Every structure is written in C-alpha cells, then in structure tokens.
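Justification of resources, computational component.

The compute hours requested in this renewal are based largely on the per-chain cost of generating structure records like the one below. Each record pairs the submitted sequence with a full structure-token output. That output is archived, and it is also reused by downstream analysis tasks.
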Amino acid sequence: MKKYIIVIFLSLFVFADTIHASTILSTFTSLVKQNNLPLSKQSFCIRNQSAAVASYNSTARLIPASVSKLYTFDFALAELGPDFRYTTELIVNDDTLYINGGGDPHFVIENLRSLIETIHNDQQTPLKHFVFSPNFYFNWQKTPDSITSSMITSLGEDSGAPIDSGFTVTDTSVPYTGTGTHYEFQSAPLSILIKQINNYSTNISADVLFARAGGPTVFSNYMNKTYSVTSRTVSFGTGSGLDQNYTTCDLTLRVIQHLEKTVAHLHIAITDIMSMPQVDPGVLQKTLLALADTHGIVAKSGYVDYHHNYAGIVYTNKGPVYFAVFGGFNKLSDGPKTEQFVEKFISTFAAAYTQVPFAYVPHNDVTGNTRIIKLN
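The structure output for this chain reads:
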C-alpha cells in the first residue's frame, strides 16, 4: 500500500512539474507574440539543481552581450585566484612622481589622492610633476590624451591635495627606471573588483581582466577543460561582450552553477560578487520592478545592439533556480520593448516561487581595500 501511495505521489509531482514547464513556455511564447518579436531570435532556459524546468531554443548559438561578464568572472577566478591584485609601480624622484602602469583599470582619483598623501607624509615635499607610462588607466580612461586630460581636471578640482599649484601631467613611451623612492599600489582583491564590474557593467574592466587571465586562447582551453565544449558552442573575443562573443543558453546556466560552487568553495557569498536587482547600485537598480521583492535574486543583464539578455539565480524555498533569457530583435527601435518583454517574463516566472531572501546590505568598498607599500 505504501509503495502504491509513493508511486501516486511521484506521478503527481512529475505531472505538476510538467504543467509548470508548459505554463512557463506558453507565457514565454505569448509575450513574444504580444511584443511582435521574432520567436526564432528568442531563447530561455530555467533549471533547478538537478534538472531542466523549461526552455526554448536553449542550444542555439547567441550573442550574450554583458552576460559574457559571468563567463569572465568564472574564468578569471580559476586562472588568477580570488586574491589576485593589480599592482602599479610608483617612483618618487625629488618633486616628480613616475607612474609605471600595471594595467589596473580600477585606478581612480581616490587612489591617486591616497598615494599623494602617503608620499607627502613620507617625503614632506609637494609633488609638481606626474609622469605616467603605457599600460596605465585612470578614471576608466585608457589613451594617453584622455588620461592626461582626466588627471589634470581631477587634480585641479582637488583643492586639498598636497601638490604644487603649477603641477604638470605628461606621458612617456617607456616605464621609468631611474633612481628614487619606490612604492607599490595594489588594487582591491579580485573578488571585490568582480562585484564592482557586475554592479556597473564596466566594459573596460572586464576586457582587461579577460586579457590578464589569458585572453581568447586560454579561455577556449578553459571552457573545453571545464565544460567539455568547443568553439562550436562558445567563443569569446572580449571579456565585456561588446563583440565577437557567442554562446548558448544551456551553457550559460552551467557557468552560473559553476561560478556559484566556486565562490562557495572560496567562502565568498554569492552576493559579494553578483548583483541583487533593485538593491545594489548600478545597472540592475531599476530592473525587475514588477517584483515586490528581489532579496533572493542575483543576476547580470546584458545589452548590445539587437540583443537584450538577463541571467541569474532565484533562491527559493525549494532550492536555487537558475535562469537565462536571450532577447533578440530586428530593429533598434524594438530595443525598449524587448527589454520590457525579458523583464516581464522573468518577473512572471520568479513570482511563482517563494524566495529565500539574503540578509544583505549593499557594500563594495573597492578603494578601501587597496594597499600602498613602500619598497625602499
């Protein structure tokens, strides 16, 4: 009798799950038609920890846009480790600060101000000349002219900085190797930088990180080794997703699951690297507004011409639910309604679950986790 009851229960469970899957699919196709979007260019996939829940076009090769950054995070954590820091060499000679670029795309005016104050307290001489070499970034600028302009403007507006009023900023084609007092500026650790990139979807930071982890060839090898996929399934030319990238919905969910396991192994909360819609500042702060509560969701959105995507995890009372939606359109004027369609679909299926909220308060102190070390 007990066995008979168990069989009935399992049958009902499978039947209910099938109804849920068909309901999700019908909602998806209905919303696509309502918005007059090409069904062939849409894709979604939803799965729990053990199996697919529902999907459409999930193995088609699609452009991931900034959802690419989730792949970049997974790749960089594996190749560089969570404690990786960019390092910038600084040499003070008399009243000149030489900055030998270390490829840190997160270096901003707050970091330069800290360096100036540290050097002034140590040297007791106001800096008058700033000279930077290639591979130096400042306030997310990367060309010599834009860096020079940004530094002059930023330092000129920082009236409290202990520098000479007649300061100059110039660039040089080679790193400085002369005499002076050496310092090293270290960025925040990778895990903290990832959160900032996720919150604000900073393309330059993601592209630099992708290159530092090894670039396209090493990435391709990593995807083959970790996920047993080839260029027939995924290929990346950039870490940001601005161009040259393609993947599938199915693989995106596998990457998200792997990323989740990686951060758990590293004793990092998933909310410390992924953004919470409506809660964290940045690109997701005004998304999924149809949901009254998003405290159990972490995600990443992506937008590039003719594509609007969204992927993440809904933590529910039945375990995590992984999702990705790839919205494609033919006219740039259809971008806004594609975004609305994607968010409405996600909000509709997510509302069917009971979320398990994180006890989370936004925090991402990138500048506060940097280090300045005097070397001699």
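The longest strand covers residues 307-316. The mean pLDDT is 92.
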